[in-house]
Design a protein that fits this description.
With about 450 residues, the protein is α/β, with parallel strands linked by helices. It is built from 16 helices and 14 strands. The protein has 3 domains: about 110 residues, Gyrase A, domain 2; about 120 residues, Up-down Bundle (Four Helix Bundle (Hemerythrin (Met), subunit A)); about 150 residues, P-loop containing nucleotide triphosphate hydrolases (Rossmann fold), CATH 3.40.50. The protein has an 8-stranded mixed sheet with strand order 8-9-10-7-11-12-14-13, with helices on both faces. Strands 3-4-5-2-1-6 form a 6-stranded mixed sheet. Strand 3 and strand 4 form a beta hairpin. The structure holds guanosine-5'-diphosphate. Guanosine-5'-diphosphate binds next to helix 9 and helix 12.
């Protein structure tokens, strides 16, 4: 069933000279427009060589015309694709011609929106298209492709299914009040609830990684003057994955330069500026340092062993979700071997920005924090909206567990689980229809 609508058209791809440009049309007028441009009935999913002509018969371009009849198309509607030479002028004229023939200019995202409304994609998949196009690293592109493929949605659905089964279970117990208390205390039910919560936690963690991949990891390199922060940044910038951007500033400006290392943005901050000071310039530096730190996902503290404790205290203003990684630089001076250690306060890496020893360990740790695994496998792209929905789902799941274990209140637990389902449905954009009764009859044999 397709959503009836008007016909939209847009330039879908417009590369520079030499490339192929595409004008895409979707809606009920796509087939009539195809007939008008081709001069005969096009065959479905067949590449026709066509002479695209203006109203006055003048030749606009010669190219390929492909018609994908509904519902087997990207949007689920009739879709027409016109491939022409990638000149912006040619494409604009071709688009104008389709508008004359009854289409209207599409709004941004309208093809994906129609694909969603027609059930071709769910909401998370539609969002993945935008993330794929905007991906700033190979890992982010792979992850977006995985979400577009439905990997993320499948995991959300699996959790929804599991939550629904639990709710069905509890609802069934409520139907037999004399047995309800025992039923709700059954170890099986507890186990299933625990397993659901574990699955939820794993999904939340993977979703957070997915958001980091899409947004990139914002890393602030902090430390006192002369600990070797600039040297470290330069050493990282020397990697062929790095894009270096100079940002103008005074010597006491916190923002000296940023480096983008495969989707990991690195910014330098001198923590000397974090000390209280009457100096106006230094106070401005402090303000900027705090701004940088407030939006950091990770602070790399380049420590000078003598000041390690005090420096750490300066990072108290970091957002709670941000992590700290401590770098012990200049190991070449005392012959300490390069290594990485996970301590209770987070990872520590011993390296030399000068010799480059241990730098690979730092990069590996940064990539891990950014959600880019060794192979980058298994990660899907996600958005802050999804994390927000999952966090709300988590609170309802927690409340359900509390109602079951503490209060033995089956109805309240079932209601919380219904809210979990509802909130998870927001991620994939489903309207959560209440099909619970049907499920009770389907899954349970009442006579037993
Ligand atoms: P920043 O003020 O923290 O940015 O520090 P710099 O990067 O400017 O480095 C301060 C001084 O330490 C410079 O003389 C660097 O050459 C030196 N330095 C930086 N890293 C190392 C290192 O790994 N080993 C040695 N021996 N010296 C280093």
């Amino acid at each position: 069933m397709t959503v009836a609508g008007d016909t939209i058209a847009a330039i879908a791809s417009a590369p520079g000279a030499g490339g192929v440009g595409v004008v895409r049309i979707s809606g009920p007028q796509a087939a009539p427009i195809a007939r008008a441009l081709l001069g005969r009935e096009p065959r479905p999913r067949h590449a026709h060589l066509a002479s695209f002509r203006a109203t006055d018969g003048g030749l606009l371009d010669r190219g390929l015309l492909l018609l994908f009849p509904a519902p087997h198309s990207f949007t689920g509607e009739d879709v027409l694709e016109l491939q022409a030479h990638g000149s912006p002028v040619v494409l604009r004229r071709l688009l104008a011609r389709t508008l004359e023939l009854g289409a209207r200019a599409a709004r941004p995202g309208e093809f994906s929106e129609r694909a969603f409304l027609n059930g071709k994609l769910d909401l998370a998949q539609a969002e993945a298209i935008a993330d794929l196009i905007a991906s700033g690293s190979e890992a982010a592109a792979r992850a977006a492709m995985r979400s577009l493929d439905g990997e993320f949605s499948r995991r959300v659905h699996a959790l929804t299914e599991r939550t629904t089964r639990l709710r069905v279970w509890i609802e069934a117990a409520i139907d037999f009040p004399e047995e309800e208390i025992d039923f709700l205390a059954a170890p099986d039910l507890r186990d299933e609830l625990d397993a659901t919560r574990a699955e939820y936690e794993a999904l939340l963690a993977a979703t957070r990684r997915g958001v980091r991949l899409v947004d990139g990891l914002h890393v602030v390199i902090v430390g006192r003057p002369n600990t070797g922060k600039s040297s470290l940044l330069n050493a990282l910038a020397a990697s062929d994955r790095a894009i270096v951007t100079d940002v103008a500033g005074t010597t006491r400006d916190v923002l000296r330069e940023t480096v983008d290392l495969d989707g990991i943005g690195l910014t330098l901050v001198d923590t000397a500026g974090l000390h209280a000071s009457g100096d106006a310039i230094e106070q401005e530096g402090m303000r900027r340092a705090r701004v940088e730190l407030a939006r950091a996902d990770l602070a790399v503290l380049v420590s000078d062993d003598a000041h390690a404790e005090a420096d750490r205290a300066l990072l108290d203003g970091l957002p709670p979700s941000a992590a700290v990684l401590v770098v012990h630089n200049k190991i070449d001076l005392d012959g300490t071997p390069a290594r990485m250690e996970t301590r209770s306060d987070g990872p520590h890496v011993w390296l030399s920005a000068r010799s480059g020893a241990g730098l690979d360990r730092l990069v590996a740790e940064l990539r891990r924090q950014a959600g880019i695994g060794e192979s980058g496998d298994g990660t899907f792209s996600a958005r802050a909206r999804h994390v927000d929905a999952l966090e709300r789902a988590g609170r309802h799941l927690q409340a359900a567990a509390h109602n079951l274990a503490e209060a033995r209140a089956g109805e309240l637990a079932a209601e919380e689980l219904r809210l979990v389902q509802h909130v998870l449905g927001e991620i994939t954009g489903e309207v959560s229809a209440d099909d619970l009764l049907g499920r009770i009859f389907a899954d349970f044999c009442i006579g037993k």
